[in-house]
Write a structure and sequence with these properties.
The structure is a single chain. With 63 residues, the protein is an all-alpha fold. The protein has one domain. Helix 1 packs across helix 3. The longest helix has 27 residues. It is elongated and about 50 Å long.
């Protein structure tokens, strides 16, 4: 079993966040990847997502 690459981890996190992660990919993630890797990738994604939302709202509202 090879460990997933950084790109594969972020693709998997993105698919899981938007709800299109297939059952086969989810099982593969749990078998091959480490939990801490996916947690860290998820947290990084959420920080960037929240920052992007705050940025967009501040531009739209002119604040």
């Amino acid at each position: 079993m090879s460990k997933p690459t950084l790109t594969q981890v972020f693709k998997s996190v993105l698919a899981a966040v938007i709800g299109v992660q297939s059952d086969a990919n989810r099982k593969k993630d749990f078998e091959q990847g480490s939990l801490s890797t996916y947690i860290i990738a998820g947290l990084i994604f959420m920080v960037f997502f929240v920052a992007a939302i705050i940025f967009i709202v501040s531009i739209v509202t002119g604040a």
